[in-house]
Amino acid sequence: MMGRITPMVKNLLLINIAVYILTSVIHTPLSNLITNYGALRYLNSQWFLPFQVITYMFMHGGFWHIASNMLGLFFLAPLLEQVWGPKKFLIYYMACGIGAGILYAGAGSVESMYVNKNINSYLSIEHPTPQQYNDVVDILDRHADNYINIPGLRDLYYDYSEQGASQSNFERDSKRIMFKVSEVYKASRDRFQLIGASGAIFGIILAFGMMFPNLELMLLFPPIPIKAKYFALMYGAYELFRGVNQSPGDNVAHFAHIAGMIVGFIILRQWKKQHGSFY
C-alpha cells in the first residue's frame, strides 16, 4: 500500500504528523507558541494574524482528529496527484484549506459583529422594555448559544413581563445582565481557535467524487462498497445536517468542511472551463 503514495501527499503527511507530535505529544515552550499563534482566530479577533489561514491546516486537536484527516489524504489524494501533478495538486489542496478557513472565520466575524451590535444597541436604550430585552435574548439563542451560559438570562423577561415588577428594577437588572453577556461573549469569541486539515480534505473528497464518480470505494464502517460520487454526496449532506443541527458541546466546525467543498467546487468548475472536461 505504501508504494502507491505520491511525493506531495507524502510530504503533507509528514508535515502534519510532525506538527502534531510537536504540539500534542512533546510539550515544550515552542509547542505552546505554535498552538497559541498557529491556530486560526476569527478575522476580527485581536489575536488574528494573516499567516494563520495557512498554519491552522497543519495543526490537530487529538489523535482521532489527525487520524481521520490523514487517512482521507492517504487513500484519496494520491490518485488526484497522479492526474494533476504535484504542483496543481498542492495548489488545489492549499486553496481549499485556506478558502475554508477564510470563509468560516469570516462568517464567524460577521456573526459576532451582528450579535455585539444588538447587545450594544440594547445597552444604549435609556428605558428598555422587557420585549426589547427578549428580542436580544432570541438573537443570542440563535447566534451565541454555544458561547454564553449565564443562569437566569431568559428568566428575567418572564419575571418582569408576567409579574409586573417595577420598570426601574428591570432596567437595572437587564442592563447588568446584558453587560455581563457582552463581556462573556466577546471573551469567548476572542478565544475561538480553528485547527485541522478538514477543509482541505473535504475539498479532496469532492474532487475525488467529481473526477472518478463511478469508482467504487470500500467503506470501513460499515464495510460496503460505494461509488465515489455517492461517497462525496453522503459526506457533504452529513456535514450540512450536523452544521444546521449542531448540538451543545459539538466543537466540530462542520461549516468549515462544507466551505472546503464549496471552494473545491469553484476551482474545479473553473479548471473545467479552461481545459475542458476533467472527468
From TrEMBL:
| Positions of the Peptidase S54 rhomboid domain | 52-106, 193-267
Query: What's an example Gene Ontology biological process for this entry?
Result: proteolysis
Which Pfam family name is an example for this entry? Rhomboid
Using the UniProt record, give the first listed, main subcellular location: membrane
Location in the cell: Membrane
Regarding the membrane, this protein is recorded as: Multi-pass membrane protein
Q: Which residues cross the membrane?
A: 12-34, 54-77, 89-107, 192-212, 224-241, 253-271
Q: Which InterPro entries match?
A: Peptidase_S54_rhomboid_dom, Rhomboid-like_sf, Rhomboid_protease_S54
Q: Which Gene3D superfamilies match?
A: Rhomboid-like
Sorted keywords for this record are: Hydrolase, Membrane, Protease, Transmembrane, Transmembrane helix
Q: What is this protein called?
A: Rhomboid family intramembrane serine protease
